[in-house]
Design goal:
The protein has about 325 residues and is mostly helical. The chain is built from 9 helices and 2 strands; from the N terminus they run H-H-H-H-H-H-H-H-H-E-E. A hairpin with a 4-residue loop joins strand 1 and strand 2. About 10% of the residues are buried.
């Protein structure tokens, strides 16, 4: 009896619609309603655009054959098939159509691309300029510091060279060291009797000529300012007197013009060097001509300069 009893929990029921056979009236009614609703539905713009694009791509991908209306018209004009043109690898499919969806002009896309490309190039250039590594910054800072230090040493060296060539070397020698620029009676040589400020600028050694040029420029400015202040009769006529003073300065009649206003190619070439190179030249001049070491701060009795560690500051510790 137990085997003959039905197991209702394991029973399955077949879907009547899945069985092949005649369509029922209910199924037919539902199908007709769906088809009518599909035909009556208005497609969206996106669906229409996709449908048009699919149809266009399918038409453009179709090669020319005898069934094509365009091919039939071309055959009447003598076209026998194949590619258009004489070159190998010519086109056998129609040229693609690029649809324009926006309302911009024909060259609008090219102009936008150009602006975007220029903006990208400017951004890249700006990033390159701003991209300074820590090592580059340290190297640049070190170079600038060494250049400023060399500039200060160069000014000190040319003052020392000037003192030797003008005969004033008492403060540049250690006690007990006799200066080479002094005579036996302790007086300066005859060349030192002529004031440096009265000499033509080009006759001065180019190694310390910038020092004299700077000194003369400061003196000229001082004299111009002094003469201007002396020429002021009262505050009331200050503006008129100042205008007259500027006219005199412009004409060169107020202050005596010196020869350092002329072009000096030798000085220009010397000043084009770096401060380290100028310093090296001045130190070499002091050693060879006066046997004086700028780093030791003393003169030596002979050319061997026995006791001097070397030419550079590093050698002197």
């Amino acid at each position: 009896m137990a085997d003959e009893e039905d197991d209702y929990l394991s029973m399955t029921f077949d879907d009547p619609s899945s069985k092949p056979g005649k369509e029922t009236s209910l199924q037919r009614t539902q199908r007709l309603k769906k088809e009518a609703a599909e035909r009556g539905r208005v497609p969206s713009k996106k669906e229409l655009a996709e449908k048009e694009k699919a149809a266009r791509d399918a038409a453009l991908a179709t090669q020319l054959d005898s069934s094509n209306k365009g091919a039939k018209m071309m055959a009447k004009m003598g076209f026998k098939g194949g590619a258009l043109g004489k070159a190998e690898g010519a086109r056998t499919t129609p040229i693609e159509v690029n649809m324009k969806d926006d309302r911009g002009g024909i060259g609008m896309d090219s102009e936008k691309k150009r602006k975007v490309r220029e903006a990208a190039e400017q951004l890249e250039d700006h990033q390159k300029r701003q991209k300074v590594t820590e090592e580059e910054y340290r190297e640049r800072t070190r170079t600038e510091r060494e250049e400023r230090r060399a500039e200060g040493q160069w000014w000190s060296a040319i003052r020392t060279l000037e003192s030797f060539e003008t005969g004033d070397t008492a403060t540049k020698n250690e006690p007990g060291t006799e200066s080479e620029n002094q005579t036996d009676d302790g007086k300066a040589p005859a060349s030192a009797e002529v004031p440096v400020d009265r000499k033509p600028l080009r006759s001065i050694n180019v190694l310390w000529r910038p020092l004299v040029k700077q000194r003369r420029e400061k003196e000229r400015e001082r004299r111009m300012r002094y003469d201007f202040e002396q020429s002021l009769p009262s505050k009331r006529d200050y503006e008129d007197t100042e205008a007259e003073f500027e006219d005199k300065v412009a004409l060169g009649t107020e202050v005596e013009e010196l020869d350092d206003q002329e072009k000096d190619p030798e000085l220009d070439e010397y000043e084009a060097l770096s401060f380290a190179e100028r310093l090296e030249k001045v130190i070499k001049e002091l050693r060879e001509k006066y046997r004086y070491c700028f780093w030791c701060k003393c003169s030596y009795p002979d050319e061997t300069m026995d006791g001097c560690p070397g030419l550079t500051e590093d050698e002197h510790g």
